[in-house]
Amino acid sequence: MRDLDYLKLLSKSFPTATAAGAEIINLRAICGLPKGTEYFFSDLHGESDAFIYLMRSSSGIVRDKIDETFGNLLPEEEQLALANLIYYPRDILSDPKHKEQDTPEWQRITLNRLIQICKVVSSKYTRSKVRKKMPKDYAYAIDELLHIDHHDPDKKMYHQGIMDAIIENDLGDEFIVALSELIRNLTIDMLHIIGDIFDRGPHADVIMDELMSFHDVDIEWGNHDADWMGAACGNPACIANVLRIATSYNSFDVLEDGYGINLRPLSMYAEEIYKEDPCECFQPHLLDANVSDSVNPQLAAKMCKAISVIMLKEEGALIRRHPEYHLEHRLLLDHVDYEKGTVEIDGETYPLKDRNFPSIDPKDPYRLTEKEQELMDTLIYSFTHSAKLQKHIRFFFTHGAMYKVVNNNILYHGCIPMDSKGNFLKIQTDRGALSGRALMDWFNEKAIDAYFLNGEVDPAGKLYATDLFWYMWCGPNSPLFGKEKITTFEHCFIEDKKTHIEPFNSYYEFCNDEAAVDRIFAEFGVDSSRGHIVNGHVPVKTKHGESPIKANGKLFIIDGGISKAYHSKTGIAGYTLIYNSRHLALAEHKDFHKGGENTPEIQIVEQMKQRVRVGETDNGRELKQQIADLEELLLAYRNGDLQEKGERILRYREKL
Q1: How far apart are CA 266 and CA 268, in angstroms?
Q2: Which residues pair with 587 in a beta bridge?
Q3: Of all helices (H) and strands (E), which one includes residue 454?
């Protein structure tokens, strides 16, 4: 029997045998329900419109549920209109074009259709759970509408009365919005984001707001996320790189409008130092999603070059601070012949595409000029004092980590570093040589130190941990980066594309090897016969015949390129992995066009042998432990080890 003191504490919540028995019945019933649907997304890269559409459409599942509910009863055009209404109810209802059809009769028909879809998507949940997802003001009415027996004439009249009251009191639109939101909430039970929310696209801040409003979400950090986390902690190399990427993709809105980062000092400095320089090598990528930004491309190019040079200096200082990184070979500014305009890399000399370096002292190339230091001080202050950015980054810590093991699935963004033989790569840390899961845990702990450690109490520890964010972004043995080197300098300054190659870690050679994948399962304590690995980071080149399914269905790489920057390489716009009680499915996204037909193509990739119940999930195991505890409490009541709290005592306490 459990410790009697523990059972006494439990008895405060369940003071009688009847109360304990009722809760046992309730929990056992929940364990028998089908598991909720989990959604896995990766590499969102600021594509807020596309992501919000995928969230609201449940990557095509809402559309399937409409078809399942109405079949041939509704033509394709009406089904699509109903789907769009569920995705964007407020936008559609406020559209002047819609006002012509927004009659009481249209509202009545639409409400009845939404109720029917609600019944379908809520069927595998308890009535209590569904009610918790309802808006409080309308919960009673919606609950009644969902559970009326239309075969009973009195109940049918009762339903009619509720519907009349809604429409006559001009609440039809509000109920349509409420039902649409409920449908969306019921189709996604758990949301997993496998890294890289930030960079390239226009509005990572909007994505973060959407995630923070979701009821059950976790984030497995990506290397681009680590870069922003480092920037929020004040790491100058990370700040400079975040700005380099933003200026190169013309994505200024997320910085200025989203996070209130003042870029005027950077633009003024860039105009001053590169006034006559066309900065041709730094022209921004003008992606469709980013054309709303108002910064002139020529100014953006100057800003990009200015911050890129500063970034190379800041990275050089960081590399020198950490000889344990073994990155001295990446100190390239002191391998430049500034008179000849060449650079030596790995024993070979290359001409530079850009030879104008007014802020670099060839005798001390990594020293910031006075104006550069003033600029960086201003930018560091902006990043560390942006309330919204700090709020979003804190969410990364409260809801995220380097990896997650959930329901027999291992989730991580990049890789588990391996050597050429497929063994877990041992990496020297301040705690000795670490590999596999222990290495992931070490990076996780250091990231937490970087954000939460008091710098005044332990300045050396704070700096060490904060610098690691830069290594997590682009270090050769970083599990988030997964490559031997990052070739930013080469991309910026060297024409020869062979210098641009970034060789992948051996993990990517072995991720299709079932034996290697099984070793990862063993490392993380997951049953290889039932488990899966889900990671992103590397876009799947579908147009070249590459598959996201690896190792005989045990590993999924779901970065198919939701970012517009990848579409030409991949041929698609990414994947969602969907895991419900019956199967695993991949939803292949289309290139998103607002107002168009964007429903993903869904392919079932694994059928469950039998329907998965809540009792077989991680939450189910917790529920079974609660049941076991309650059964012991019930036994303690029955054999006299604990005395039940009588009704008289309970009524007395209620009065108090």
Answers
A1: 5
A2: 576, 602
A3: none
Is the per-residue pLDDT at 648 higher than 70?
A: no
If you ran DSSP here, which 8-state letter would residue 434 be given?
A: E
50 confidence band (pLDDT: 50, 70, 90):
confident
Are 625 and 618 a contacting pair, CB within 8 Å? Answer: no
Q: What values do phi and psi take at 427, rounded to 5?
A: -125, 135
State mean pLDDT over 588-615: 79
The residues near 599 (Cβ < 8 Å, ≥ 6 apart) are: 57, 60, 63, 83, 590
Asked if pLDDT for residue 612 goes beyond 90, the answer is yes
For 533-601, give the DSSP string: EEE-SS---GGGT--SEEGGGTEEE-----SGGGHHHHSS--EEEEE-SSEEEEEEPPPP-TTS--PPE
Burial of 39 (0-12, 13-18, 19+ CB in 10 A): buried
Pairing of strands 549-550, 555-557: antiparallel
Three-class DSSP labels, 348-392: EEEECCCCCCCCCCCCCCCCCCHHHHHHHHHHHHHHHCCHHHHHH
Cβ(554)–Cβ(514) below 8 Å: yes
Are 478 and 465 spatial neighbours (Cβ–Cβ below 8 Å)? Answer: no
Biggest CA-to-CA distance, the chain: 95
Q: Tell me the pairing of strands 432-434 and 348-351.
A: unpaired
- Mark residue 296 as left, alpha or beta (left: phi above 0; alpha: psi -120 to 50; beta: remaining): beta
Question: Residue 427 has which token pair?
Answer: 């990496």
**Which pLDDT value is given to residue 285?**
80
Residue 325, H or E segment: none
Q: What is the mean pLDDT of residues 498-507?
A: 94
Tally DSSP H helices, then E strands, for the chain.
28, 17
Is pLDDT above 80 for 194? Answer: yes
Say what the pLDDT of residue 144 is.
Answer: 84
Residues 6+ apart with CB under 8 A from 353: 280, 281, 492, 493, 494, 495
The strand pairing partners of 40, in sequence order, are: 192, 577
Residue range 211-258, pLDDT digits in tens: 999 889 999 999 999 999 999 999 999 999 999 999 998 889 899 999
Cα angle at 280 between 279 and 283, to 5 degrees? 90
- DSSP symbol at 643: P
Query: Residues 283, 285, 289, CA angle at the centre, nearest 5°?
Result: 145
Site of tokens 């059928």: 607
Q: Which string of DSSP letters, residue by residue, matches 181-238?
A: HHHHHHH-SEEEE-S--SSSSS-HHHHHHHHHTSSSEEEE--HHHHHHHHHHTT-HHH
Distance CA 41, CA 587 (A): 10
Query: Distance of CA 45 to CAs 6, 142, 246, 249, 653, Å?
Result: 47, 37, 11, 11, 55
Given phi > 0 = left and psi -120 to 50 = alpha, else beta, which region is 424?
Answer: beta
Among all chains, which residue has been given the structure tokens 């950490």?
322
Count CB-CB contacts under 10 A for residue 58: 26
Query: Which residues fall within 8 angstroms of residue 7, CB to CB, at 6 or more apart?
Result: 1, 629, 632, 633, 636, 641, 642
